[in-house]
Amino acid sequence: PDLPLMGPESADSSGSRLEAFTWRMSREGGSDPVALAAAARRRANELSMKVRAEGELDGSLYGHVLRIAEPVGVDGIGSWLGGTWYVDSVHHRFDENGYRERFVLLRNAYGDNLQTGSNVLAAIL
Question: Does the model's pTM come out above 0.90?
Fold first, then answer.
């Protein structure tokens, strides 16, 4: 993968003592080496996102709009899981009860990497 780590410790299996593995891809799109390398890199990046979180927040309290494919800081969930996350999906709902954001976040690392005072999803989750 060529994505930057979203925390100090990679969420890979390097310390697990498991044997190295390989994965195979179909040759969809032909045999162009550049296209195949780009597809492999894209797949490696997808597979590196091993940590997943789902939640819902009050958008009025949070005061920001979550956007797909953008990073967001999450705090208040401990030093192992707190830190920068990638917004994989978000559903915005406006109704008589207010503004709610239901989301799925992904991460390729463990450990808190946020600066104190960052804009984060904290106690509102």
Answer: no
- Tens of pLDDT along 25-59? 776 667 788 887 888 888 877 777 788 999 999 99
Identify residue 53 by its one-letter amino acid code. Answer: A
Assess contact for 29 and 35: CB atoms under 8 A. yes
On whether the CB atoms of residues 54 and 104 are closer than 8 A, the answer is yes
d(CA 83, CA 77): 9
105 contacts: CB under 8 Å, gap ≥ 6? 52, 53, 54, 55, 72, 74, 85, 86, 87, 88
Residue with tokens 């106690």: 123
